[in-house]
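Example with several molecule types.
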Amino acid sequence: MERVSSKNLFIKEVIATLIFLTCIILLSLLWQAGVGANPNTQLVEKVAAPWIFGPVQVLLIYLPAWIAGLIIPGMIILTLSCLPWVSKLLGEKVARLAFTFVIISILFLLLWFSGLEYWWA
Amino acid sequence: MTERKTNNSFLNHLRPRSVPRRAISILYTFCLGGLSFLAFIVLGFTGILLMFRYQPGEQNGFNSIVELASVVPYGSFFRNLHYWAGQLMVVSVSLHMVRVVWTRSYKPPKQLNWVVGVGLLLLTLILDFTGYLLRGSQESGAAATVAVHILNNLPGIGPSLAYILFGNPSPVSGSTLNVYVWHCVGFAFAALSLQGYHFWRVRRDGGVRPL
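Resulting structure tokens for the full complex:
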């Protein structure tokens, strides 16, 4: 296998760093991070979770807390962790199918959450 | 002597003098792992700056966030940087995981590093959640209440675990000393240590695979 000096890798890392830092500084200058509702004022009626936890919030609306908050996230983590062994025992196709199913389910719940958030607003 | 040798070996694995030519192609990794680490560095740097003014607590949490966002010079900018780095880290870690599956890089001998990566994804989400709680707003209070309720469903250790992680959060503010310590020390250092091991292991297992 042909090898090259890690200087080449370093140059690409510096370029990626500069692009990333520029993007993040622009985002920080253009969009403010919200502070939320003051705890000392009147209580807000509907609280949407941050988008990262939107899928869990959707599940919590329709399912008992122990299923939505423990069993389903736990099964997702377990499925992801076992992927190399699923691939070894049941075949790569099954492992990829399981991973695709997890990703599509999360994206579907995220889309559902976006609809709810829009509806609540 | 042995310790020095071990250190050199660790550093040489992290930064070898030469790398496979394919490893420097952007299309192999899209730099997603490196960008996630960079976001983590930005989070650490801005987090330390925020710690100079932030005070956890039902009243203090929200007040110090408002002070940072509106009174402290450059406080708003550094808080925005912290927030956006957190958001981008979740995105880049998730995409990194998809890339790893796409390139079949989870297969032996990299199965252990895959599990470490899943742990890092989990830690990233937990760090994001605890950071959200530290805003001390009504929304964070609701989130903390839900999280405590969920953990209380765990048989046996649930209530104790909820107390260790969240303390006694108020329904209108999730900012507690427990959450603050876990966010700034416990989870942050666990993520840093696992990342060091993850990068070392990537090199040790032969680097990235071709697309």
